[in-house]
């Protein structure tokens, strides 16, 4: 989400450098949102008799096109971790845009099956980079909405050219940006790191604030240099409290990814076309409505998560999603008149996903682990999420064809409702609590003695939404 980004980069004043950097950090994820959302309006076009391909694309190919980005993204998460550590964040971020540009170029070049699937696989490599390199709180909603609208009102080729322009714009501008100070320090380039930090903060090289922040970065680098992935993984599994926190994180990630929202966003036009309730809006226009609702949910997530707490917001949004999907399943089973109920149910489900189910697990993850564990846990959780989504999207259309949409949405509803019970019984509240307090609750004990607020994890505080 954008709240932390603006606070971090513009806290020294609303300067052009910080605003430009924030814009360039958001742009790759915006491009990723367009790449993922593209399939919803274009999938039905590719399968129709008016297809831009040589012949209508088989539904199984569309399922593979939906699934393969996340399948590739599962491995790409770890590859990008290596790239960031050894070649820097700047090069890694530029590589994500290069992947997006290659994807759109390949789709413009050919509509053959091999090109469509390969292009989506290349997107998957960029997806892994978007999750690792760019901040996890930035959502891709606006990109989804833009491509929904473009897919409704513009032709196939025009939409592709617009999508290609976004990563090319990022590549052209971002090449002039400095490397991150942390990576420059890691390479021993202290003066270059000082210059990059001064540029980012719009200060003079001799400013004492720049020296102070540089010393902080050096201290963090020394603390992180001794941390190894497999050493962290060993402690993660062997320590009882840490492992329980890890297990909870994986479980709520499973609930988040198998709630069905990503399947809805990928196949929204097909779902609305199946509902076919005679609305004045076309299937693509109704899908664009979901994009608007998703954007609204994302914008309200920051205030909701701070006002209501993590556990209540996660539990309520999971419950409401389950009830909405149950109603949607019943509608498809009974085939009730009109499309008001499926549209309302899907909008409510997507809002809950954007406002709670998607952001809250990431927030709780940062609050349940110290900085020594966060990098490793984040990589594993993102790879796990990508694998789940890949399987879900590959199975969605075959299951819908064999069992019916009502059965598929019933499965999604069951996941949400069971997860609600799990959240209520097993997930701790993490808001305004130290890791010691959280782990004490996981052990079923109270923390020994009062904990001074000043001793709370400072890094956790700045990674909240």
From TrEMBL:
Annotated localization: Membrane
Location of the Major facilitator superfamily (MFS) profile domain: 21-431
Main location: membrane
A Pfam family: Sugar_tr
Lineage top rank: taxon: Eukaryota
UniProt topology in membrane: Multi-pass membrane protein
Segments crossing the lipid bilayer: 20-41, 61-83, 115-133, 153-175, 287-305, 312-333, 339-357, 369-391, 403-425
Presence of keyword Transcription regulation: no
Record's keyword terms, sorted: Glycoprotein, Membrane, Transmembrane, Transmembrane helix
The keyword Disulfide bond appears for this protein: no
Name of the featured protein: Major facilitator superfamily (MFS) profile domain-containing protein
Originating organism: Iphiclides podalirius
């Amino acid at each position: 989400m954008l709240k932390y980004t603006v606070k971090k980069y513009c806290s020294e004043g609303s300067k052009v450098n910080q605003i430009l950097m924030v814009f360039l950090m958001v742009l790759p994820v915006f491009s990723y949102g367009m790449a993922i959302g593209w399939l919803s309006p274009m999938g039905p076009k590719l399968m129709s008799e008016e297809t831009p391909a040589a012949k209508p694309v088989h539904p199984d190919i569309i399922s593979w096109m939906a699934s393969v980005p996340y399948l590739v993204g599962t491995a790409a998460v770890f590859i990008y971790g290596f790239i960031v550590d050894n070649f820097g964040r700047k090069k890694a971020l530029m590589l994500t845009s290069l992947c997006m540009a290659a994807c759109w170029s390949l789709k413009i070049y050919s509509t053959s099956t091999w090109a469509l699937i390969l292009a989506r696989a290349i997107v998957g490599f960029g997806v892994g980079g978007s999750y690792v390199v760019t901040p996890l709180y930035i959502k891709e909603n606006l990109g989804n909405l833009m491509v929904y609208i473009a897919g409704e009102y513009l032709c196939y080729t025009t939409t592709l050219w617009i999508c290609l322009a976004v990563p090319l714009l990022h590549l052209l501008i971002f090449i002039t940006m400095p490397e991150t100070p942390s990576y420059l320090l890691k390479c021993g380039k202290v003066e270059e790191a000082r210059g990059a930090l001064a540029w980012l903060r719009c200060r003079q090289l001799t400013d004492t604030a720049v020296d102070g922040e540089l010393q902080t970065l050096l201290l963090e680098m020394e603390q992180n240099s001794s941390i190894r992935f497999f050493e962290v993984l060993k402690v993660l599994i062997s320590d009882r409290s840490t492992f329980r926190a890890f297990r909870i994180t994986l479980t709520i990630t499973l609930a988040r990814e198998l709630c069905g929202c990503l399947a809805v966003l990928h196949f929204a036009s097909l779902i609305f076309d199946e509902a076919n309730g005679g609305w004045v809006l076309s299937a693509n226009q109704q899908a664009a409505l979901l994009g608007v609702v998703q954007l609204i949910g994302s914008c309200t997530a920051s205030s909701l998560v701070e006002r209501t707490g993590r556990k209540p917001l996660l539990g309520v949004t999971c419950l409401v999603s389950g009830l909405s999907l149950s109603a949607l399943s019943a509608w498809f089973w009974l085939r009730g008149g009109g499309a008001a109920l499926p549209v309302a149910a899907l909008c409510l489900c997507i809002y809950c996903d954007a406002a709670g189910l998607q952001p809250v697990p990431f927030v709780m993850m940062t609050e349940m682990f110290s900085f020594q564990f966060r990098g490793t846990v984040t990589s594993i959780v993102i790879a796990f999420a990508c694998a789940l989504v890949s399987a879900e999207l590959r199975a969605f259309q075959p299951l819908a064809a064999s069992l019916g949409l009502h059965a598929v949405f019933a499965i999604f509803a069951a996941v949400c409702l069971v997860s609600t019970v799990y959240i209520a019984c097993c997930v701790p509240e993490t808001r305004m609590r130290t890791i010691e307090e959280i782990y004490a609750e996981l052990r079923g004990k109270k923390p020994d003695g009062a904990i001074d607020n000043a001793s709370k994890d400072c890094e956790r505080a700045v990674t909240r939404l």
